[in-house]
Amino acid sequence: MTVHHNDLNNESMNSMTSPARSKQEDKSVNEQSLGGEFVDYPHCNSCDPLTATFQRVVINGLSRDENNPYDLFHALALSVKEQMMHDWRRTRFEDIQAQRKQVAYLSLEFLMGRALGNTLLNLGLTEEAEQVVQQYRVDLAQLETLEHDAGLGNGGLGRLAACFLDSCACMDLPVTGYGIRYEYGMFTQKIVNGYQVEQADRWLKGGHPWDVIAPNHNVLVPFYGRCEVHVDHEGRQHHTWVDTQDVIAVAYDVPVPGYRNNRVNTLRLWKAQATEGFDLEEFNQGDYTEAVAYKNLAEQITMVLYPNDSSENGKELRLRQQYFLSSASLQDILNTWVKNHGRDFTDFSRLNVMQLNDTHPAIAVPELMRLLMDHYALGWNEAWKITSGCMAYTNHTLLPEALECWPVRMFELILPRILEIVYEINARYLNLVAHHWPGDSDKLTQMSIIDNTGEPTIRMAYLAIVASFSVNGVAGLHTQLLKSGLFQQFYALWPDKFNNKTNGVTPRRWLAFSNPRLARLLDQKLGEQWIEDLTLLQGLKDFLNEDAFLQEWREIKKQNKVDLVTLIKKECSVDFDPEMLFDVQVKRIHEYKRQLLNILHVIHLYQKVLKGNVDNMVPRCVLIAGKAAPGYAMAKLIVKLANNVAEMVNSEPLMQPYLRFAFLPNYNVTAMEKICPATDLSEQISTAGKEASGTGNMKFMMNGALTIGTLDGANIEILEAVGDDAFFLFGMNAEEVDHLRPHYQPQQFIESSSELFDVLTLLKSGHFNLLEPGIFDPIIYAIESSDEPWMTAADFESFRCAQQAVAQTYLDKKRWAQLSIRNTASSGGFSSDATIAAYRDDIWHV
Ligand SMILES: *Cc1c(COP(=O)(O)O)cnc(C)c1O
Questions:
Q1: Quick check: CB of 159 below 6 Å from ligand 1?
Q2: Plot region of 694 (φ>0 → left; ψ -120 to 50 → alpha; else → beta)
Q3: What pLDDT, in 10s, does the model give residues 219-273?
Q4: How many C-beta atoms lie closer than 10 Å to residue 535's C-beta?
Q5: Would you give the end-to-end CA distance of the chain in angstroms?
Q6: Is residue 773 part of a domain?
Q7: CA 191 to CA 79: how far, in whole Å?
C-alpha cells in the first residue's frame, strides 16, 4: 500500500513544504513570524528559583511519586528543563532576528550520556539542586545515578558530536544538532562466562524528561515510488517523484545549555511515525495486517542504532535512516528559511552551513538538490551553487571497511529520484575531471562517484567531497594521510578544500564535572576562568616544585582511584588497590586498537610473577573495557580472552601483590566519567596510521594520566604538547608500518623476543581456556600470520620496553606527579572549544 504525498491533510503538517504553496501564503507566514518583539513574560518560569519550580512540579503532580527516587530524579530534571525554557525560546528568537549564519551539525550519532549533572554545572544550579533534594533525604549524587545514559552513538564519532554541541553553546554559536531519536541506543554489554552478551538498551523506558516534542516542525520523508518527467510549454523538464511511501518525521528537541551564558541551543532528534492511520480502503477490504505492517515498516526506521564502530554493513534499513535524517533536517532548515526570507534563496548559502559528521549524512547532498529543484523550482546550476556553497564534510577514518559504498540497485528501489540526481552530479563532475586530466580515462574510472568495477555502488565519500567546500580530517597525521593517500587525486584537483581540525573534548564534562576534586584545586590555584579558557591550565607549571601542591595532586588522584575501586569491585568482583599503578585501556574493541597487544603484555607480567622474577616490579592494576560490534567475531573473541586471562590472574594468589586485571562490562560515557579521573597510565596503542584522532587520549591527559602510545592520530600532537619525557612512545610509525607490510614475518619477531615467545607458548598450551580447548586458535593464528594487518607481534618488544620505562618512572612518586601535572597543564589545546573556534573561523565563518 502507498500513502501519497498529497493524500495527507494532517493539521500537524502545517510546515510541510509543497511546491503548490502560493507566494501570498508565504508572505502571511512571514509577517507572523517577523517584526515582533520578543515577549519576555513577566512571570516566566526561569525567573523563579529552581526551588520554586520544583515545588510547582510536585504540587501539580508532575513528579509522579516524590517518595520514589526515580520519580524524584524525573521531577528534578523537569524542573531544570523549565529553568531553561525562557532562555531557550529567546535564543531561538534572537538567532533568527540577528540574521546570523546558522550551522546544522548533521550526525547519525550523538553519544550524550547523562544530562542532569552536566546541565546543573553549566547553569550554575548544582548547590541549589542539592538543597532541593535534601528535603527528601536523598543526595543529588545518588539521584544522578538513576538517569539512564543517552547512548545514541557508538564511540568517538558520536561523543565528538556531543562535545561539539557543548562547546558551540558555550561559545555562543548558533549551531543546531540534527540526529535520530533511536528507540534503542547502544546495546548494554553483559559478560557471561567471559563472553559478551548484548541486551537491548531501553533507555526511554522511564520516560525522557529532557526533550520537548515540536509537532509544528513535522515533515514528510518520501521513500520508494518512481520518477516522472514532464516537459512544460517552454520546453523545460520537470522531475517528480510519485507514488512514494511517506514517513512522518517528528521533531524531539533537547536543550543544550551553554556555560552560564544564557544561551540554550537545540539538539533536534527525529522520530519516524507512520502517516496518519492507514489506507482506509485497504483496511475496509480486510487487509488490516498489511496496513499495520506498513506502519511497522515506517516506524522501524528510528527503532535501533547500528552498533558498528568504524565499519558499515550495508543494510537497507541503515540507508533509510541516513536519508530520513538528511531529508527531515534539510526540509526543516528550508522551512525556517522560507518562513523568514520567502522563496528567495540568494543569500541561503551565505547564511547556512551543514557540517556532515562522516559520510553517514552525505546523502544530504543530492537531497538538498532535490528539494531546491523539485520543491522550490530552482534550476540545476542555481541549486548546485547553493548546495556546494553550504556543505562541509568531516572524514573520520581511512579504514576501507568503514568507507560507505551503497549499491546502486538499493538507491533505485528506495530513492529513485535521488539516484537520478547522483548520476547527474557525477556526469557534470566527471566532465571537470576530464578537462583537468585530458585523455586520462583511468582517472575517470578511479574518481567516479559510481564504482563500476563490480556490482555498481555509490562511493559516498566521493559524493561528499565533490559537493563540499570544505573537507577536513580530525588530526594532523590523519589529514596528511587523506591528502597523500585515500583522497590524493581529489587533493590534486581541489587543494583548497582540504584542511585539518584536530578533535577535542569538552572540559565541562571531562574535567569540571567528572573530576570535582581536581576542579576545586584548579579553581583555587588558577581562578575559575580555566573552564572557559583551558589554555590557562599552563599556569599549573608554576607549582611543579611545590611539595605541598604535589602532595595535594597525588591525594586527589588517590581519592579518584578509591572511587573507581568501588565500581570495579561492584561490577567485576575484582579488588583493585589504589596504591598500585592504574593502567587503563577503554575504547571500542577493534583489532586496530590492539587490545590484544595489551593482553599479551598482561600475560607476560603474569609469567614474570610466576617465575618469581619480581625485583623492581611495580604493582599494577590493568583495566580494559569496551564493546565489540555484535557481528565482529574477532573483537568478541578478544573480549573473551581478556576475561579469561583476568580470571586466571585474579585467582592466582601469587599475583595479589603485583598484578590484578579486570574487564569492566558496558563501557559508556558514565563509566568514562569515573575512569579517566582515576587513571595513571592511558593506553593509546593502535597500529600507527589507523586511529584517525582518538579523543579518549585527550580525556585522560586532561585528568593527569601519562600516555603510553604509538605515533598515531592525536597522540602525536599530545606528545608535542607535553614533551617526550612525559609520554611513553613506542612502536613503528605510520611510514614504517607501510614499509614493513609487504614483507612482514611475525615469526622473526617471535623468535627474537623470548618474552613474546613465552607468552605465545603459554597461550597455545590452552592455559587460559582449559575447559574450552581451541577457542583462541583464531587469535593465535592471526598473530602469527604474515598478512595480519595490525602487526601486533612487530610492536610487542618495543611496547614491553616502554612499559618497563613506565614502571621505572612510577617508582619515583614525585617525578610521576610532576609529569602528571605537566600533562594536565599541556592539555588546553585539546579542549573542543579550541577545535570549534577553528571550525568557526576557517569553515563556518559565523
Ligand atoms: C571518549 C569516548 C570514546 C572514544 O574513545 P577512543 O579511545 O578515542 O576510541 C568512546 N566511547 C566513550 C564512551 C567515550 O567516552
A1: yes
A2: left
A3: 999 999 999 999 989 888 889 999 999 999 999 999 999 999 999 999 999 999 9
A4: 15
A5: 46
A6: yes
A7: 37
Catalytic: which of 587, 601, 604, 627? 587
Q: Picking from 9-18, 137-146, 232-241, which range would have the lowest pLDDT averaged per residue?
A: 9-18
Of 400-404, 421-425, 453-457, 741-745, which range is least confident?
Answer: 400-404
C-alpha 374 – ligand 1 centre gap (Å): 41
588 is catalytic: yes
C-alpha 760/C-alpha 771 separation (Å) is: 19
Q: Which residue's CA lies nearest to atom 1 of ligand 1?
A: 696
Choice among 375, 593, 601, 640 that is catalytic:
593
845 among known catalytic residues: no
Q: What's 239's domain CATH number?
A: 3.40.50.2000
pLDDT band, very low/low/confident/very high, at 60 (cuts 50, 70, 90)? confident
Domain count, the chain: 2
Q: Is the CB of 709 under 6 A from ligand 1?
A: no
The one catalytic residue in 375, 636, 699, 800 is 699
The amino acid sitting at 431 is N
Report whether 356 contacts 468 (CB < 8 A): yes
Whether the predicted pLDDT of 615 surpasses 70: yes
In the residue annotation, 74 being an active-site residue is answered as no
- In this structure, the residue with its CA closest to atom 4 of ligand 1 is 156
Given a cut of 60, whether residue 567 has pLDDT beyond it is yes
Task: For 441-478, write each residue's pLDDT tens digit.
Answer: 999 999 999 999 999 999 999 999 999 999 999 999 99
Q: Is the pLDDT of residue 309 over 50?
A: yes
The pLDDT tens digits for 501-546 are 999 999 999 999 999 999 999 999 999 999 999 999 999 999 999 9
d(CA 761, CA 600): 11
Q: Can you read off the three cell numbers belonging to residue 340? A: 523568514
525: annotated active-site residue:
no
pLDDT for 30 equals 36
What global pTM score does this model have? 0.95
Is the sign of the CA dihedral 518, 523, 524, 526 positive or negative? positive
Residue of 789, 794, 787, 785 whose CA lies nearest to 752 = 794
Structural domain span for residue 275: 5-15+26-40+99-114+149-472
Verify that 320 and 444 share a domain, yes or no.
yes
Pairing, β 581-586 against β 620-625: parallel
Same domain, 200 and 280: yes
φ/ψ of 550, rounded to 5, equals -60, -40
Task: Determine the distance separating the centroid of ligand 1 and the alpha carbon of 666, expressed in angstroms.
Answer: 13
Same domain, yes or no, for 709 and 613?
yes
Please indicate, yes or no, whether residues 397 and 533 belong to a single structural domain of this protein: no
| Cα(323) to centroid(ligand 1), Å | 26
Q: Is 694 in the pocket of ligand 1 (CB under 6 A)?
A: yes
Check residue 282 and give its pLDDT.
60
Spatial CA neighbour of 408 closest among 388, 422, 394: 422
- Whether residues 521 and 451 share a domain: the answer is no
Share above pLDDT 90 across residues of the chain, in percent, rounded to a whole number:
87
pLDDT for the residue numbered 794: 98
